[in-house]
Amino acid sequence: MNLWPPELKQMLTPETQVQLLNMTEADLEAVVAVEQSAYSHAWTLGNFKDALKAGYVAHRLVAGEHLVGYFVAMQVIDEVHLLNITVAPPFQRQGWARCLMQSLSLWSQANGASYLWLEVRESNAPALNLYQSFGFQQVGLRKDYYPAGRTTRESAVVMSMPLKA
Questions:
Q1: Opening angle at CA 102, ends 21 and 127, nearest 5
Q2: What is the model's pTM?
Q3: What is the rounded distance in angstroms from the CA atom of residue 158 to the CA atom of residue 139?
Q4: 48 burial type by CB count under 10 A (0-12 exposed, 13-18 middle, 19+ buried)
Q5: Quick one: pLDDT band at residue 37, thresholds 50, 70, 90?
Q6: For the chain, domain boundaries
Q7: C-alpha separations of 9 from 94, 96, 111 in Å
Q8: Distances, alpha carbon 35 to alpha carbons 25, 28, 150, in Å
Q9: Mapping DSSP to helix (H, G, I), strand (E, B) and coil, where does residue 22 land?
Q10: Whether the predicted pLDDT of 73 surpasses 70
Q11: Superfamily of structural domain 17-162
Q12: How many angstroms separate the CA atoms of 165 and 162, rounded?
């Protein structure tokens, strides 16, 4: 299934309307399609439904009619934990992840959070670079946290960032 037409980049112009919207159950078919196109070990439809049912913050970034990306996070008292952030493959390496991170940071501050937390695959150098440039610092390592194959696992780098008051 080809989710994005080849002429997609020409269709997105500086005039294309970009919106950050709440994710709803009606959006999940498109979200899961992006998730599966982006990851070898993707979240399932059930994972997203459970996140929405639990009341986690879930936003999607849309450019025109195209789902660019999304994030899911949970707040516990004064901390927000990023659970999933994904940019659709045709939109990667264009600054959209930074836009999503900025949106999450602003949402977190507006909702009284003092810290952002996340885990990232140890091998995901682009994401590690993004998070470090955003102000996250490594605070731990979770051994064998992520599935990496049928019988192998990969460690997760635990990162945290204080939010400005």
A1: 105
A2: 0.87
A3: 6
A4: buried
A5: very high
A6: 17-162
A7: 11, 14, 35
A8: 15, 10, 19
A9: strand
A10: yes
A11: Gcn5-related N-acetyltransferase (GNAT) (3.40.630.30)
A12: 9
